[in-house]
Automatic annotation (TrEMBL):
Signal peptide range: none
Protein name: CFA46 protein
InterPro entries documented for this protein: CFAP46
Taxonomic lineage of the native organism: Eukaryota, Metazoa, Chordata, Craniata, Vertebrata
Top-rank lineage group of the source organism: Eukaryota
């Protein structure tokens, strides 16, 4: 919410999405948001692909999405339990497709042009700091994604 308020006048008026933890988006909402975006930000718990149906994602065509930012890989007891219950029904190769590198490859194959994503588990605080750095450099300063990722790496 702080990011939305900070960049409201210049950037966020056209942003669409689901905010908060009151409900999870439906599969139809995920698909609508993904296919109609030029940039997509996921800031949430666990693996991004644990929220989206993989068979639906791989059949999507998302060429309008120039940038996808995945600030995921955060765990709580509740999120871990939800994912573990979901993973019981999945094969090992299917679960492997939800890892960061495989997720980036799948998104690339659907047409996403650039992907910024965590490679390992992190905390909500660290992801909040990353989102602030990304927003500041991409939106306010106007740096390229490469320059911004370089800043994040430092």
């Amino acid at each position: 919410n702080e990011i939305l308020e900070k960049y409201h006048d210049t950037f966020t008026l056209r942003w669409e999405g689901v905010i908060g933890n009151t409900r999870a988006p439906s599969q139809a909402e995920w698909e609508q948001l993904l296919t109609n975006c030029s940039a997509f930000v996921f800031y949430g718990m666990e693996r991004f692909l644990s929220h989206v149906l993989l068979n639906r994602l791989v059949s999507m065509n998302i060429p309008k999405c120039h940038l996808m930012i995945l600030l995921d890989l955060v765990q709580s007891k509740q999120s871990y339990q939800r994912v573990m219950n979901s993973d019981i029904q999945k094969s090992c190769p299917r679960i492997a497709l939800e890892r960061p590198t495989e997720t980036a490859m799948l998104l690339s194959l659907t047409g996403v042009r650039a992907i910024i994503a965590n490679q390992w588990y992190t905390t909500l605080q660290e992801n909040a700091e990353r989102l602030e750095i990304l927003s500041e450099n991409l939106l306010r300063i106007g740096k390229t994604t490469g320059q911004t990722v370089n800043i994040l790496q430092k």
